[in-house]
Write a structure and sequence with these properties.
OmpA-like; 2 domains; elongated; OMPA-like_CS; cell outer membrane; alpha+beta; four-stranded mixed sheet; OmpA-like_sf; 10 strands
C-alpha cells in the first residue's frame, strides 16, 4: 500500500494583531473542523492573523515551485493556523488520508483536489507546503506523498483545508494548514466617485482594491459591484473623461503569464462597465502590465496583496 501525503487546511478564528503561543495553537487544532489522527504527536505550529496562501488545486508539473505553477493554485487570504505532526512509523498514509477525507465530508467540506504519489505531479514535492516550511521532514519521493484540499462555505468566511503527509527515512510527518477567509470589508477598500476624481485630478491615476478575481481567472467577482458602480458614477459626472483601465498582478508566475492575465482582467472590467453599467466603451481602454509596476516589494505577502490591483489612469 502506498504511503502518501495529505495536505489539510483547518480553521481557527484569530483576533487581529493577537497571536497565540504554540501550546495554545495545539489546543486550537484540537477544536478544528477535522481532528488529527489519535496517534499524531504535535511537533510544531505557527499562526498568522493574515496570510496570502497558495492552495494547490491541480497537478504540479512545472519547475519553479509555486511561482512556476501558479495556474494550479488558488490564492486564499485570511487567518492561518499551521500544525506539524509526527505519526507512528508504521502508519499507513493511505488510511490516514482516507480518514481525513471521511471526516471532512461529515463536517460539510467539499473536496477541491486530491492526489497521491506520482499523480500529484513530477515537481509536486518542492512546491508542497510541508517542504516550503520543513524540507527535511517532507523531502521524499513522489510515491510517498498524498495531498488533499477542501473547502466549506460559511457565512462568516469560507474555510479551506489542506493536508500534506509524507513518509521519509526519518518517519512519517503531516502538516496541517488551516485557513479561514476573512470577509472582505467592501466599504473599507472601496473608493467612491469623489475620491476617484480627486486622485485623478491630483495624481493622474487611482488604485482600486475593490475589484476581485479568483486566482488564474479574469471573471470579475460579484462583490466588485460597489466599486464598479462608483466608476460608472464618476464617468457619468464627467462626460469628457477617458480612462485607461490597467490590470496589475503580483510576481508569482512567469512574466508573459501575468501580462496576459492582467490584460484579460482589465478587459473584463471594461466589458462590465460598458455592458452592465452603461459607460461608453470608447471612453475606456483596457491595458495589462503584469507585475512590471509594483507598489510594494513582492518579497512579502503584504506586498503582493498591494500589487494586485486595478488602476484608472487619465487617458
Amino acid at each position: 500500500m502506498i504511503r502518501s501525503v495529505t495536505r489539510f487546511l483547518v480553521i481557527v478564528v484569530f483576533s487581529a494583531g493577537c497571536l497565540t503561543t504554540p501550546a495554545q495553537a495545539q489546543q486550537d487544532t484540537s477544536k478544528a473542523a477535522v481532528d488529527p489522527p489519535t496517534h499524531a504527536k504535535p511537533v510544531g505550529s505557527d499562526e498568522q492573523a493574515f496570510a496570502t496562501y497558495p492552495l494547490i488545486t491541480g497537478r504540479i508539473a512545472q519547475r519553479g515551485g509555486i511561482n512556476g505553477n501558479i495556474s494550479a493554485t488558488r490564492t486564499v487570504e485570511g487567518a492561518l493556523s499551521r500544525a506539524t505532526y509526527e505519526l507512528a512509523d508504521n502508519a499507513e498514509i493511505d488510511e490516514i488520508a482516507k480518514g481525513y477525507a471521511q471526516r471532512l465530508g461529515t463536517a460539510g467540506f467539499d473536496i477541491l483536489y486530491e492526489c497521491e504519489g506520482a499523480d500529484c505531479g513530477p515537481t509536486f514535492v518542492r512546491a508542497s507546503p510541508g517542504y516550503r516550511v520543513s524540507s527535511s521532514r517532507f523531502r521524499s519521493t513522489p510515491e510517498s506523498q498524498h495531498y488533499l484540499a477542501a473547502r466549506k462555505a460559511d457565512s462568516s468566511g469560507d474555510v479551506y483545508v489542506g493536508i500534506q503527509i509524507a513518509a521519509t527515512n526519518a518517519g512519517v510527518s503531516a502538516q496541517v494548514d488551516t485557513l479561514r477567509v476573512k470577509p472582505r470589508e467592501i466599504g473599507a477598500i472601496s473608493v467612491n466617485a469623489a475620491q476617484m476624481a480627486n486622485d485623478l485630478d491630483t495624481k493622474g491615476r487611482v488604485a482600486l482594491y475593490g475589484i476581485f478575481f479568483n486566482t488564474d481567472s479574469a471573471e470579475v467577482k460579484p462583490e466588485s459591484r460597489p466599486t464598479l458602480s462608483e466608476i460608472a458614477k464618476l464617468m457619468a459626472e464627467r462626460p469628457g473623461l477617458r480612462l485607461l483601465v490597467v490590470g496589475h498582478t503580483d510576481s508569482r508566475g512567469t512574466f508573459d503569464y501575468n501580462i496576459d492575465l492582467s490584460q484579460r482582467r482589465a478587459g473584463a472590467v471594461v466589458d462590465l462597465l460598458a455592458g452592465r453599467f452603461g459607460v461608453e466603451r470608447e471612453r475606456l481602454k483596457p491595458w495589462g502590465v503584469g507585475y512590471s509596476v509594483p507598489r510594494a516589494s513582492n518579497n512579502s505577502d503584504v506586498g503582493k496583496s498591494q500589487n494586485r490591483r486595478v488602476e484608472l489612469v487619465v487617458w
